[in-house]
Structure formats: C-alpha cells, structure tokens
Amino acid sequence: MRGINKVLFLAAAVSLMFAAAASAAWKWPWQQQKSNVVSIQGSTTNLPITQKAAEDYMKVNKDIEISVRGGGSGVGIAGIIDGACDIGNSSRAIKSKEIMNARAKGVNPHETVIARDGMAIVVHPSNSLKNITVDQIQAIYTGQIKRWSQLGGADEPIVVVSRDTSSGTYEVFNELVLKGSKLRTDCIMTVSNREVAETVKNTNGAIGYVGLAFLSDGLNTVTVEGITASNATINNKTYKLARELYVYTNGPPAGNAKAFIDYILSEAGQKIVADVGYVPLR
Amino acid sequence: MGIKDKGMRKNFIERMLGPIASMSLVFLLGIALTLIITGMPAFREVGVLKFIFGNEWRPTFDPPYFGIWPLIVASFIVTFGAILFAVPIGVASAIYTAEIASPGVRETIKPVMELLASIPSVVFGFFGIVFISPILQKVLGLPTGLNGLNAAIILGLMAVPTVASITEDAISAVSKDLRNASYALGANKWETIVKTVVPAAKSGIFTAVILGVSRAMGETMTVLMAAGGARGVPSSIFVPMRPMTATIAGEMGEAVIGSTHYHALFAIGFVLFAINVIFNLAAEYVKKGGNK
After folding, report:
1. Which of B256, B262, B263 best probes binding to A when mutated, by most A CB atoms within 10 angstroms?
2. Does a structural domain hold residue A89?
3. Are residues A121 and A177 located together in one domain of the fold?
4. Residue A18: its pLDDT value, please?
5. Do A189 and B38 touch (CB under 8 A)?
6. Which B-chain residues 26-55 have CB contacts (< 8 A) with chain A?
7. How many domains does chain A have?
8. Residue of A210, A50, A236 lying closest to A118 (CA atoms)
C-alpha cells in the first residue's frame, strides 16, 4: 500500500509542476532576452517578407540575431503589448481595443507600413463570371446568393471557400467585404492561401479569395468593380480589395529594430517584397 | 564485489522501475490538469452548457460566440463514419490473417498493414484532398468533395491497422480446446470461426472497436485537411464540417495567448479528452464483464 501512495504522491507533485509551467508566469533561464537579438512574431502573411529580409540582413550584419516566428496578426500585436517581441508583424491595422490595452500597460504601439497586398477573387476555370461587385461578394459569403444562376451563370450551387476566421487574411476580408455581417456557416474553411487556391482549382462551383502571390494557372481571376488586381491598381488604391502589411513597435522603432525595419523599406528590402509575391510600396 | 553489492544494485534498479513506470500516469495527470486549468476561464466566461450546446462557433466575431455543438456533432459523424469503414475491413482482415491465410500470405499481409499504420497522417490528409475528394464529388454529384464522408473514409483507412491487430490478438487468444470441441461436434472451419471463435473473442473485438474510435476521434491533421471545415451544425455526412480536433489545430496558431479564444480551444481539448476517457473506461468495463 505504501508503495502505491508514494507513486501517487510523486505523480501529483510532478503534475503540479506541469501546471505551474503551463500557467506561463514561469520563466526558464533560456527565455531571458539577449541585447543583440531582434525578435519578430505575428502574421503568417508577413512571414515570407520578414523571414527572407532577416536572412539577407544577418548575412551582412553578423553580430545581430533576428528571430522570426509566425503566430498570426493578433499574436504579433499582443507580443508588442506584453513585451514578448521587439517587432510585431500584422496584416491588419491594430484595433482600438488593442490600442486601449496597450495604453493601459504603458505601451505606445507605433505603426510602419512595409508592403501592400491585394486579395484576388478566384473561381474555377469553367466559370463564365468575369466581374463581380463587392456587394455581390458580400451576398455570396453571407449566404444571400446561393447559386451561380443568381449572377447570370450556370444553375449550380456556389461552393464558398474562405480562410480560417483567426487569420489576418480573413480579418481584412471581413473588414473590406463582410463589413461585420456573419459569414455563412456552410463555408469551407481552409488553413492557408495555398489550400484556398487548391480547393477552387478542384471544385467546379467554387469561389475563393487569395493573396496575389497565390494566383496560378488553373484559376480564373475575376475583376472587382471592373478593376483587375495588379501592383499598379493596388498602389493607386483603385482596386478595392487591397490591404497594407504592417510592423508594430513600442514607440517609434529604435536601435537594431529600426535598422532592420529601415532595411525592409530600402530598395533591397522592397525587392524582397516583390520577390515573395507582394506589392512593393514604390 | 560481493553478493551484497549485487543485491543493492538490484534493489536500486527495482526502486527506479516504479517511478519510471508511473511516468505515463504523471503525464496523464499533468495533461488533464493543464487542460482543466487553461480551459477553465472559457467555461467560466461562456458557461458550461452554453459552451457545449451553443450552436455557433464564431471565435473572432464581434461579439464572439463560443458554442462547440457543431464541432462535437462533426466529430461524432466523422468518427461514426470511420468506424463503418474500419470495423468490417479490420475485423475481416484479422479473421483472415489469424484463421484462414497460409503462413506465407500472413507474413506478407501483416507487415503491409503495419506499414499502413506508419504513414504520417498529413499524407493521408493530402491523399484525401487530391484523390478521394474529387472522386466523391463526381460519383455522388456533390458540390464539394471536402466533406464528412471524405474524412470518414480516410480515418477509417487509418484505423484499420489498429482494429485489425487488436482483433487478431483477441482471436489468436481463443484457446485451442474451444476450436477442437467445435470441430469434434462436426462444425466445419467457417462455422467454427463464426459461431465459436468470434463470439469467444467478442470482448477483445469490442476493445479493438473502441480503440479504433479513439484513434479516429483524436486524429487531427487528416480532418483538418479533408473535412472542409465549415462551422455550421452538419445536416448530413455529405457536407463540409469541422470536428473538434481540426478546430484546435487550425486556430491554436493564431489565437492570442490568454484570450478567451485561446482558453476555449483548451476547453475543447478537455471535452475531447473527457469523451475519450469515457470511451476507454467503457471498453475496460465491457472487457472485464466479458472475461467473467
């Protein structure tokens, strides 16, 4: 009997340690920050840009270590608010609620636009649709329009494909198209832009939205309000479904963080933006 | 170096084995505690009943809705569908390899089946997206092949090795005396299998089914990729749906740590854990009852 009690006691003790570690208040020695390290976290949309820029930057500046993690836009902004990172990546603008949280903790989020991105509306190649309005997209994604015949197409159901609602891409879609109305519940939710493209390619009645970087053969891109998504139409703001990609810092960028952000904004950095498929600022 | 020294060493090793063996108990308790502690704020904020039976899951909507009923229903539909595929195939293969196949055939089939169990789930998921889903779409005339049935078929395939190997153990454990008695009464091989061996092994087969259920219920990557992810309460197995595991895997990466959404995902984990514990306890109970 005593042996069993001992085992149970041990089990309980170690379990408590587990729980303590999970409560996040715990800091291990290796979690302490070093001074020549710039840590970046947040939007997976910004990830290709910051990742590539960090690699190139570290080749030249060997004494600086830049660590880049994903996690999503919310995680990036939260990282600035609670001091978990030096630069927060976000593919949407900071929300007023988040600014209030930051102020309450004495943090002053500072926004820098590093690139632009456009969302293209894509359909299956067999679809005859050429142009769509923002209101029609909204009606499709909220479920008011359910069949292509309602838009002058074939009499088949519309298969609606969306990004997961936790993603920055969805949040921008929500802001530009849904404008606060509820997404229909039978919408296919995918975890990446690539999967949206893949699903639309394979499904006759499908419609989806993807970043410009993910357009490829086998997808029909429709014009929105008569405008084709391109670098030019996104930079002169005539294309409606465009967004800016941000980095946030606590106060105006300084020191190593400033040097790195300046690098992204430089000609070399903006070339990376174009190389990984986004829209450079100039 | 003497007998005493050797005895001490043996004693020491024996003392160490206990704690090492209890490690899995530690991990189980630790995981359960972590799930409860981290999930608790969501239960408290949303309310247990509203959380479990609420039929809208809109974690990033303003105001957010945290009802996981659609996810629970989706998990059960997909799991039930998977069992419909896995059990007949798994049990039939087990009967074949244990009773009918010649040793040569058995030595070929068993390693192949074990190989099936070692394929990473993301590969199965990919297989579902590019291979099974287009077939379902064409054959059944559905608007999309990314649905519950697609996930169920792949999960069923994935659970076959689990079901088959445990069923085979159960069948092999049926004593020779029983078989001989059956033959002595004039039963042929088929009658012996169906009327004697399988009934005698039924509690083991039941365990196999329950473990298959746990496997299918807990599988994540495949359902995330293949089930479609729609968040409404599914009306049938032919529509896109979003099981609990897919929700956790798909949203955990982008949920802000410490937010209600984050806690709600842990709470889903706890609900899933509780369901699996109930299944396993039930299996244990039936197994004991069967052996009496």
Report:
1. B256
2. yes
3. yes
4. 66
5. no
6. 26, 29-31, 33-34, 37-38
7. 2
8. A210
Check if B231 contacts A (Cβ < 8 Å). yes
pLDDT greater than 60 at residue B2: no
According to DSSP, the β-strands at B57-58 and A242-250 are: unpaired
Domain limits for position A97: 36-116+244-275
Looking at the domain assignment, is residue A6 inside a domain? no
Is the entire prediction scored with pTM above 0.80? no
Q: What is the pLDDT of residues A134-189, one digit of tens each?
A: 999 999 999 999 999 999 888 999 999 999 887 778 888 988 999 889 999 889 99
Mean pLDDT of A87-99: 91
Contact criterion met (CB < 8 Å) for A11 and B22: yes
Nearest CA-CA partner of B254 in A46, A137, A54 = A46
Tokens of A119: 């969302």
Q: For residue B34, which residues of chain A lie inside 8 Å, CB to CB?
A: 18-19, 22
Residue of B60, B250, B224 whose CA lies nearest to A170: B60
For residue A5, tell me if it sits in a domain.
no
Residue B36, burial from CB neighbour count under 10 angstroms (0-12, 13-18, 19+): middle
pLDDT in tens, B244-256: 999 999 888 778 7
- For chain A, first and last CA: distance in Å? 76
CB contact (8 A) between residue A22 and residue B129: no
A10, A17, A164 ranked by CB distance to B251: nearest: A164
Range B39-43 average pLDDT: 94
State the SS3 of A217-254.
Answer: CCCEEEEECCECCCHHHHHCCCCCCEEEEEEEEECCCC
The answer to whether residue A22 sits within a structural domain is: no
A155 and A94 fall within a common domain: no
| B73-237 to CATH, choices 1.10.3370.10, 1.10.287.600, 1.10.3720.10, 3.40.1110.10 | 1.10.3720.10
Nearest to B58 among A72, A165, A199 (CB): A165
User: Do residues A252 and A135 both lie within one domain?
Assistant: no
Closest CB to A19 among B25, B33, B61: B33
A212 and A122, same structural domain? yes
| Closest chain B C-alpha to A78 CA, distance in angstroms | 7
Same domain, A232 and A256: no
